[in-house]
Amino acid sequence: MFSLTKRQAAILLGVVLLVVLAGWLLYQSHAAQETRLQQAIVLTAQQAQNINALQNELKISKQNAEMLAAAVAEAKAGQRQPEVKFIVQAPTVQVAAEKVAEQINQRDKTLPPLALEKTDRTIVVPNEQKTSESNWDVGVFKVNNYRNWEWSTGYGQHGGDKYVPVELQRNFSKDAAVSYEHHIGGKSGFEVKYIRKTDSLLVL
């Protein structure tokens, strides 16, 4: 056990408050940027298949850009079928794409729920080649970014033992990860965990 003088306690409290304030401001800035990036944007077919363009326009990792570019290429080649189809009236395919993006951003309830689903990124891609029905295609791609690393910290207590857990997690795929958690303070300890994500737990 250790004790603090009133002056040390006041300094420590001030530091903690400053850290909390800085963290809150950083979170607010990040949240505002994410909200802006979650708005649907229109990209050309060329931009939507260019990894560098996707990274720059959407602020995503190279890995996410590669997966998105591959999905767009598959859709353009007819290898990936849309989950839902809907029709909009517009004089050109570019106007149609801009109209769809605007409807998504305004949460227009006339669109299918899948088009309005909240995801990390949404791009609308016009296809300049008409379909066999003499219509233009406009693709809407909803993207949830894959993140390789996660970290967390907090406060823990076991009986009278207080500690700060710090965890680092490495995601190897969308449904598998390994994490290491270290306990700082009190009786120091650690945990190593293998994490698996499933749609159901055993027979439930």
Layout of helices and strands, plus pairs?
Blueprint: H1 6-37, E1 41-42, H2 45-48, H3 51-58, H4 62-76, H5 93-105, H6 113-116, E2 121-127, E3 137-143, E4 149-153, E5 156-158, E6 161-173, E7 176-184, E8 189-196
Helix pairs in contact: 3-4
Polypeptide structure, described:
37% of the residues lie in helices and 26% in strands. It has 6 helices and 8 strands. The chain is elongated, with a radius of gyration of 24 Å. Strands 4, 5, 6, 7 and 8 form a 5-stranded antiparallel sheet that branches. Strands 1-2-3 form a 3-stranded mixed sheet, with helices on both faces. α3 packs across α4. By secondary structure, the chain is α+β, with helices and mostly antiparallel strands. It has helices at residues 6-37, 45-48, 51-58, 62-76, 93-105, 113-116; strands at residues 41-42, 121-127, 137-143, 149-153, 156-158, 161-173, 176-184, 189-196.
> Can you tell me the residue ranges where pLDDT is under 50 for at least 5 consecutive residues?
none
Order of helices and strands: HEHHHHHEEEEEEE
Count up the helices. 6
Q: What is the end-to-end distance?
A: 46 Å
Instruction: Give a count of the beta strands, DSSP E runs of length 2 or more.
Output: 8
* Strand fraction: 25-35%
Rounded average pLDDT: 82
> What Rg, in angstroms, do the CA atoms define?
24 Å
Structural class: alpha+beta
**Largest sheet composition:** 5 strands, antiparallel
Oligomeric state of the chains? single chain
| Overall body shape | elongated
User: Which percent range fits the helix content?
Assistant: 25-40%
